[in-house]
Amino acid sequence: MEYKTYLFDFDYTLANSEKGIVMCFEKLLTQNGCPSRTKDEIKHTIGLPMPEAISILTGETAQDILVRLQKQYSVFADTCMTENTHLYETTVPILKKLKNLDCNIGIVSNKTRRRILQTLNKENIAHLVDTIIGTENAVRPKPAPDPVWQALDILRADKSCSIYIGDSITDAQTAEAAGISFAAVLTGATPYDDFTEYPHIKIMQSLSQIL
Length: 211
What we know:
By secondary structure, the chain is an alpha/beta fold. It contains 9 helices and 8 strands. It has helices at about 20-30, 40-45, 50-60, 65-80, 90-100, 115-120, 145-155, 170-180, 190-195; strands spanning about 5-10, 15, 85, 105-110, 130-135, 160-165, 180-185, 200-205. The protein is globular, with a radius of gyration of 17 Å. The termini are close together. It holds the Pfam family HAD_2.
């Protein structure tokens, strides 16, 4: 199958931001008197909608408290997230190859669009990405299909010629719900066997295997 549109998750797919995310959650838990969580427990929430991740790690369920905690997390992230986010060595070469093949490139993430743009601008690669659907401009967050559909609509792309690449079960569920092909990459916290339960065209060790 020849794909013309490539949509990517961000965290653990194009970039590793776990250091910044762990730092922010550790601060959040400490300042709110919550029980500490291990780094692995925090890492396993990466890619989830932020209210869900916060709820899992803090035990809070009240909507007003989750909103307050998310705002507090965002303040922490402003001070340390971008400097602790680094693209994988395969990211830029793959994006450039796709551009040379005249493919559409999008990012669909539960991270905020502005935070993603900060990293892309830092690395001088924003011009390689045609659209970004972040959590603040998604109709509903992943694993709902809406962010993928929004990106496809902006790109005027056909679902049958489009693929979503991600590192988590949330990404696999999103692609399945959206009705597009999915490729998993094992650069996140999700093991190979977990992806076999979902439709996929391949499970990759790195993005270099997408072409």
